[in-house]
UniProtKB/TrEMBL annotation:
Annotated InterPro entries: Carb_kinase_PfkB-like, Carboh/pur_kinase_PfkB_CS, PfkB_dom, Ribo/fructo_kinase, Ribokinase-like
Record-linked CDD domains: adenosine_kinase
Entry annotated with the keyword Transferase: yes
Pfam families cross-referenced by the UniProt entry: PfkB
Keywords of this entry: Kinase, Transferase
PANTHER family: OS01G0105900 PROTEIN, SUGAR KINASE
Record's protein name: Adenosine kinase
Length: 338
């Protein structure tokens, strides 16, 4: 499917973010203390030399998977039946070619990728035995995406934009994306992505909330960082976020989620998982499940219930992409929820 063949509303969803190749590495807790600067958990940007230094100390070569927060959400939303396209900047290397090919295999429109003249972005995801993930990311070509490259034409024939919060590290770029999407008539969701993003860009986030965002996804660390509140209940924090005129989806891991919109508040029960392997990408999958239902007109409670199942399926294997056999079982479960 190409953009030139598109008719109005050809795409339910356009994801925007950094097309990153994930490098997946299980490590013991002591590895972080010995070889990784910064706090456990979350995401920190590194340069090529810093990335190479960490890779050199890994106990085994990492596995690879297409990644990036909005990209993960777009992949799973497409697998759940949404018509999807994606905007991000690929590199000039074999990694970028493999990334584009994977999207095309899944039926995701690839015509809105842009191409840089440096290698593709990559993210090292270090998963510890507690299933927590610590990410160190070299943005490569993705970092060279310029606000000048973004126009409303990039969002033509798209119903909904889903943007990853990591893009907000470049506030001018995030502004350009949101302005162009709004000009094209898209509704908008933003995943806050990381407490580091929020701590660095809190004034920008509140400015954009005032301008108009339709859906905000946040986990427990992110919602507490946003409101600088370590004690309030997540139901109260969801309501506080919703008071800014958004649908607030607050994910609280194994405890489920809260969804607030206007006067509505929904407790989303968790889906129990006996053996959590890796939480990387679970929040992205949750967003994909929610959007796949919400954009088809499902209620907030129904959308949250579907999201919970998709997120739970993601933590039962290494990496953010649910294996095909497990995805088939997931879609069969989801069919019983209708």
């Amino acid at each position: 499917m190409s953009a030139s063949a598109s008719s109005p509303a050809s795409f339910d969803l356009i994801g925007v973010g950094s097309p990153i190749m994930d490098l997946l590495a299980p490590v013991p807790l002591e590895f972080l203390a010995q070889h990784v600067a910064g706090d456990k958990g979350g995401m920190v940007l590194v340069n090529d030399a810093e990335m190479s230094a960490i890779l050199a100390h890994l106990p085994a070569a990492p596995e690879t998977s297409s990644g990036g927060s909005a990209a993960n959400a777009t992949v799973n939303a497409a697998r759940l039946g949404l018509r999807a396209t994606y905007l991000g900047k690929l590199g000039n290397c074999a990694v970028a070619a493999a990334y584009r090919a994977r999207f095309a295999e899944l039926g995701i429109d690839t015509s809105r990728f842009k191409t840089g003249d440096v290698p593709n972005a990559r993210s090292l995801i270090l998963t510890t035995p507690d299933a927590d993930r610590t990410m160190r990311t070299d943005l490569g070509a993705a970092m060279t995406l310029s606000p000048d490259e973004i126009t409303a034409a990039d969002f033509a024939s798209c119903r909904h934009l889903h943007m990853e919060g990591y893009l907000v590290f470049n506030e001018a770029l995030a502004d350009a994306v949101l302005a162009a999407a709004r000009a094209a008539g898209c509704t908008v969701s933003v995943d806050l992505a990381s407490f580091e993003v929020i701590n660095a860009t809190r004034p920008w986030i509140f400015k954009q909330l005032a301008t108009g965002i339709d859906i905000v996804f946040a986990n427990e660390d992110e919602i507490r960082a946003l409101f600088e509140d370590k004690t309030s209940g997540f139901d109260e924090l969801a309501r506080r976020l919703a008071s800014h005129g958004v649908t607030a989806a607050v994910k609280v891991g194994k405890d489920g989620a809260w969804i607030a919109q206007g006067d509505e508040l929904h407790r989303i029960e968790p889906v129990a998982v006996a053996n959590v392997i890796d939480t990387n990408g679970a929040g992205d999958s949750w967003a994909a499940g929610f959007l796949s239902a919400h954009l088809r007109g499902k209620s907030l409670a129904e959308s949250g219930r579907i999201a919970s199942h998709v997120g739970a399926a993601t933590v039962q294997h290494l990496g953010p992409i649910i294996p095909d056999d497990q995805f088939k079982a997931l879609t069969e479960r989801l069919a019983t929820l209708a």
